[in-house]
Design goal:
heterotrimer; A: MetI-like fold; 4-stranded antiparallel beta sheet; 8 strands; B: alpha/beta; Rossmann fold
Chain lengths: ~400, ~250, ~350
């Protein structure tokens, strides 16, 4: 019998059965209360009363305490001016902006570091995970060491380690040069970027359009083959499109090629793009930590495909690539996606470690808010609600995905 | 028939670590011949047929299929696998694909057929195993017997010359064994070369051209069913027949 | 016969051209890195000595550990009294060994044993009785504090998690709703927010004259967080117990509590043991989060020690030392978990398709 069968069984049926078949093992006084439903409702009413009473007690204490300590309540403080600067922002912000905007900046920073972290962790995790199931013994052992080391060291320790490491890098004047393309210093990683020019924006748009057209052509080609048995290959055309269209647009918009080089001026670099030490330390810490768990998820997903599936596929003389693509990956993905999603949520929550390294994301800004206004309750409430929304939406998406791809059983 | 045997196994031995699982096994299978291999568990019968399509590797001896030697050469392995199909005790259908998709996967990817041709082929074989109306169901929605019949249809879609059966009915409830054996009977009557590892002695008696008893990794006796069941030569065979036919 | 060393090498390292190239590249990288590490860590390293010796040495300065291990391991605890936390750690170790040995698994004295141990440890650390110098809980720190936090989390958290898991599957809708809200609520927020609540907000909800020790509040907070994750794991185990067990218990006239405690829970716990041990290992790592609220666990102590301008540059050695403590712990516990699983695992049905 399957697990879904079991879930559909109502617990109350069996308990009712157990309760009603009791006979002699029940206290005579309790049976006076009549049916089990009455008893059940009595318990619940009792618990409800206790809860309400307890909550009331907490509430009245809180009101008293807050009055005594002259702490204001309510969310009016969000309108007030923040009066503190934020080091890194994705949107415009001045210290004269209100607290609400500061919280928004924090939220965007959280999402920014979380998304970068998810991408980095997934890429690393998949590489190491595939390494753990490879045929090469050396690769397997290296991957195992990677996972064991990064999994067991607390994530805060890893973040602190990276932040101390970066702080101990040389000053900009003695920066470590990376192939004359970037500089590694204790102020972060400064790289050369393309000078902003509208031409690049159009080129990017052209690239996206070219990729979409290419997918369309692939779809048409597959349809032709399946429905009409005609094998038309658009590979050459698709290749040309993806390379040629952006290039054409780039040329037509003036062939911009200016570079934005960082120049050492005084004690620091000007120009280029700098990734701050706080961001880097936080990103490296949470991404590497999660990548170890993702590697394990990938490994167990691939190993969860029963050997018999591979044997059947091989005896149908499918090639290794076909087996991986049509038999292993679909089945492994179904097993992998739920734990992957919970790892992503975990990584997002770990970004709150920013309070230790000073990256201005939501938890950090809420902390500052709390200290400045003294309204701890509201500040923490905001923080908790935001994280709850992130977790809940991920769970919801996960459930939808699961239902969509569930292997149909009877 | 003085043709070259379709399968030729010559002095094959295999070890799992220190344990010898096949001990100097030699046999030949002619085209259209139906061979049943039986024996106690651990006798190496499954391992032997899995060596024929390289799901296991033999360490000593030679195996030829249609004159091609089965060794490490990938091209050889592929060519041989295209003429052999295998059925498993656990069916091994792809659970994430519908019955139809299970059958059309091989023809589309390996035999480069179009979707339309593959579907026609699949429906033809699904009808042949009497399960055409389940084409759009998923494997786990079917009973064990139905799943094994789908597996047989899937194997047939590759249009092999030889079918290997690794205890195809051992995982089935008793009332479903018959439907699978009936399909296998049809195949045999159609002239398919079959090697069947099974405990179903009734099937062996009716269908087999040759019955082989294996024990401890070696072939103990190999004889047509009439002789095998009524006048077994080797005492081990007699012992085995007593055990298996007593209920 | 092909089970020789050469065969193994061929299969696992050199099975094809790409594999051979990969093996050689990896081997070269490993040798290069390994030689450099050995040179830095052992060959050129200074194991004991002064700051000056370390400065001129090319290798690692393990002397920083010799110099600083007391503040790292014991935090702010008064120097002369540090034998007391040391003895507490010994008591803890003995309790752990007793709990983990199979002979004592069924004993009904296990939980009381831990209760007594923790109370004894707390009193011993605090002092003020039997002529011991009083040391307030604000000064407790380092490894004993980490172990105290960890033990408290597990001791308090496990029973609560079982209660929550049962509550979530309860036939009484109100209980079920409460459990769901509690579990999902605590699971959806970062541990940091819960610690903030425990430190900053919880005192607001108590009457003005009532004060609960900060350390106790924090232990309870981490324990509740742990309990919510653990509850989900146990719920998975409860779901995996076959329906027939409930029916058999009903046929034997057992009531809800007897069924649950004697029949269902033992089986459920056996099934979900790997998940449970994973979260216990995670609980040890989560103790490091208290650095955010200023509690002096072994990580905070290390960071504080690293403020010393003389020894500050040897942060790699120090952090490696403390990482080793965590890795050792995680490794030991996961090996133990594997051993336990092998012992009790017989017919557990692994998931598989078909």
């Amino acid at each position: 019998m399957s697990v879904t069968d079991f879930e559909m069984m109502k617990p109350i049926d069996n308990v009712n059965r157990a309760l009603s078949s009791s006979g002699g093992s029940r206290h005579p006084l309790l049976t006076l209360f009549g049916s089990k439903t009455t008893r059940a409702w009595c318990y619940q009413v009792l618990v409800a009363l206790l809860c309400v009473g307890f909550s009331w007690w907490l509430y009245s204490n809180a009101v008293d305490n807050m009055r005594a300590q002259r702490i204001t309540t309510g969310f009016a403080f969000l309108e007030q001016s923040a009066q503190f600067a934020i080091g890194e922002t994705l949107i415009d912000y001045q210290s004269s902006d209100n607290y609400a905007r500061a919280v928004l900046v924090g939220l965007l920073n959280t999402l920014y570091v979380a998304i970068c972290g998810i991408v980095l962790a997934t890429v690393l995790g998949f590489i190491v995970g595939l390494g753990r199931v490879s045929k090469n013994w050396l690769l397997v052992k290296l991957a195992e060491i990677y996972v064991e080391l990064l999994r067991n060291v607390p994530v805060i320790l890893q973040v602190i380690f990276w932040s101390v490491l970066i702080r101990n890098l040389p000053a900009p004047r003695e920066a470590i040069e990376l192939f004359s393309f970037g500089f590694l210093t204790n102020r972060g990683l400064t790289v050369t970027v393309l000078q902003h020019h509208d031409g690049w924006v159009w080129t990017l748009v052209a690239l996206v359009v070219a990729l979409m057209l290419s997918s369309l052509l692939a779809f048409i080609s597959r349809r032709l083959r399946e429905q009409h048995g005609r094998a038309v290959s658009f590979t050459g055309l698709r290749f040309g499109l993806v390379i040629g269209l952006p290039f054409l647009v780039w040329w037509l918009t003036g062939a911009p090629s200016q570079l934005n080089r960082p120049e050492l001026q005084g004690f620091n670099f000007k120009g280029g793009f700098t990734v701050s030490p706080e961001f880097t330390a936080l990103l490296l810490g949470i991404a590497l930590y999660s990548s170890a768990f993702i590697a394990e998820i990938v490994r167990s997903g691939i190993q969860s495909v029963p050997k018999g599936q591979l044997e059947a596929a091989r005896s149908l003389s499918l090639s290794s690539w076909h087996i991986t693509r049509h038999v292993v990956i679909p089945q492994a993905m179904r097993v992998m996606v739920p734990p992957l999603a919970s790892q992503y949520v975990s990584l997002t929550k770990n970004s709150s470690i920013a309070v230790v390294v000073g990256y201005p994301e939501l938890a950090n800004i809420s902390n500052t808010l709390m200290n400045q206004t003294g309204q701890a309750l509201e500040a923490i409430a905001i923080m908790m609600v935001v994280y709850l929304i992130i977790s809940a939406s991920t769970s919801l998406l996960m459930n939808i995905f699961n239902r969509y791809v569930a292997i149909k059983e009877r | 028939m003085l043709q070259r045997p379709v399968i030729e196994i010559n002095a094959v031995s295999k070890w799992f670590g220190k344990f010898q699982v096949l001990n100097n096994v030699s046999m030949q299978v002619a085209k259209g011949e139906r061979v049943v291999i039986c024996g106690p568990s651990g006798s190496g019968k499954s391992t032997l047929i899995r060596c024929i399509n390289r799901l296991e590797e033999h360490q000593r001896g030679q195996i030829w299929v249609n004159g091609i030697e089965m060794n490490d050469n990938l091209r050889n392995i592929n060519r041989i696998r295209q003429s052999i199909s295998m059925l498993f005790q656990q069916f091994n259908l792809f659970p994430h694909l519908s019955v139809l998709d299970n059958l059309t996967l091989g023809p589309k990817l390996v035999r480069k057929m179009s979707q339309k041709q593959a579907t026609e082929l699949a429906m033809h074989y699904l009808e042949k195993v009497h399960i055409g109306n389940q084409a759009h169901k998923f494997p786990l929605q079917l009973s064990g017997g139905q799943q094994q019949r789908v597996a047989i249809a899937r194997a047939l879609c590759m249009e092999p010359e030889i079918l290997l059966f690794d205890e195809p009915t051992s995982a089935l409830d008793p009332e479903m064994i018959k439907e699978v054996l009936d399909v296998m009977l049809d195949l045999a009557e159609g002239g398919m070369t079959m090697i069947v590892v099974t405990h179903e002695m009734g099937f062996a008696r009716t269908v087999a051209d040759n019955v082989i008893l294996m024990a401890d990794g070696a072939i103990v006796e190999s004889a047509p069913p009439e002789q095998f069941f009524n006048r077994p030569e080797h005492p081990r065979t007699q012992q085995f027949l007593e055990q298996i036919l007593s209920h | 016969m092909q089970h020789s060393a050469i065969y193994w090498l061929r299969r696992h390292l050199f099975s094809s051209l790409t594999q051979s190239i990969l093996t050689l590249t990896l081997a070269i990288v490993i040798i290069l890195v390994g030689v450099n590490l050995l040179r830095w860590g052992i060959y050129d390293a200074v194991f004991t000595g002064t700051v000056d010796q370390c400065r001129i040495a090319a290798g690692a300065c393990w002397a920083v550990i010799a110099e600083k291990h007391r503040p790292i391991l014991f935090g702010l605890y008064p120097y002369e009294q540090q034998w007391r936390p040391a003895i507490c750690m010994l008591i803890w170790l003995v309790s752990v060994v007793v709990s983990l040995s199979p002979a004592c698994w069924k004993s009904r004295y296990l939980w009381p044993l831990w209760g007594v141990s923790l109370v004894v440890m707390a009193i011993f650390m605090r002092g003020g009785v039997f002529g011991l110098v009083p040391v307030s809980s604000a000064d407790w720190g380092g490894l004993p504090l980490t172990l105290l936090l960890f033990s408290g989390t597990v001791i308090i958290g496990l029973p609560v998690s079982v209660a929550l898991a049962l509550g979530r599957r309860s036939p009484l809708p109100f209980l079920r709703g409460l459990s769901v809200i509690f579990i999902e609520g605590l699971r959806g927020v970062p541990l940091i927010t819960i610690l903030f609540v425990a430190v900053n907000i919880f005192p607001l909800f108590l009457p003005a004259n009532m004060e609960i020790n900060k350390l106790l509040r924090i232990v309870v907070a981490i324990a509740l967080f742990f309990a919510c994750y653990q509850a989900e794991v146990i719920r998975g185990g409860l779901q995996s117990v076959p329906r027939g067990q409930y029916e058999a218990a009903a046929a034997l006239n057992l009531g809800y509590w007897h069924t649950t405690t004697k029949i269902i829970l033992p089986q459920a716990l056996r099934i979900c043991l790997p998940g449970v041990t994973n979260h216990i290992i995670a609980a040890m790592k989560n103790t490091s989060f208290v650095i955010i609220i200023g509690l002096f666990d072994v990580l905070t102590a290390t960071s504080a020690v690293m403020q010393d301008p003389l020894w500050r540059r040897y942060y790699i050695e120090t952090y490696l030392f403390i990482s080793a403590i965590y890795i050792l712990f995680g490794f030991a516990l996961s090996r133990y978990a594997i051993w336990v699983e092998k012992r009790i695992d017989s017919s557990r049905n692994e998931q598989g398709i078909t």
